[in-house]
Amino acid sequence: VQLVESGGGLVQPGGSLRLTCAASGFDFANVYMKWGRQPPGKGLEWVSGIYSDGRPTFYAPSVKGRFTISRDNAKNTLYLQMNNLRTDDTAQYYCATATERGQGTQVTVSA
Which pLDDT belongs to residue 70? Predict the structure, then answer.
């Protein structure tokens, strides 16, 4: 199993980013996926999940209405569109299966 996140960076409050997770080594199209994040000095928070058929299952209250999870099973890729970013969205973001997660990509929201 390999999960490689990308798309993080430094953005101003109110800005947008789209995170990408390239998956390989397993049957991505039939696996439930999720995004999590870990702010500096804090624990891991699960942000959103998505069924194999593309239906989102949940959004954390802190991101609902601002973040959108999606996937492209033909490309073995998971996405997280993040809009109206806030300083408290600053974190390392991970994509994950039920048992594995990637190395993460850093998102920093700062003026």
Answer: 98
